[in-house]
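ok trying this again, last paste got cut off
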Amino acid sequence: MRQYLLLLFLGLGINHWANAQLAETPKNQWFGTASYYAQRFEGRKTASGAVFRHDSLTAAHKSLPLGTRVKVTNRENQQCIEVIINDRMAKRSPHLIDLSKAGARELGFIRQGFALVSIEVIPTLPKPDAQPEDIP
C-alpha cells in the first residue's frame, strides 16, 4: 500500500511539473536543430523569389509563412539572432530551421554544422500596402 501511495504522489508531482513546463512555453516557440545552407545555393532564388545570399540573416522553414521574423537562440551558448523566413525546407529534413551561413556564424555553429536551438516568432504588424514582392 505504501508503494502505491508513493507512486501516486510521485506521479502527481511529475504531472504537475510537466504541466508547469508546458504552461511556460509560448505557443509560438519550438525546439529542435538548426543547420545552414550549402555553398551551392548562393545566388539561387528562394521560395519568396529573393536571391539567396550567405551574408544575409535569412532562413528556411517547413511551414512558417514567408516573411515571418524569427528569433533563433543557440541553446548551448545562448547566442541569439533575428532572421526572416524567405525559403522552404524539404519536408523530410530532420532540422527545425536552415539558416544562412551568416546566421550560423553568429550563433557559433559553423564547425559543427548544426546546433540545438529554440525559435520564437516575433510578432509584427502587417503593412497596409505590402505586396508579395516586398517579402525578402
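PB: full thing came through this time. Residues 4-24 have pLDDT under 50 and may be disordered.
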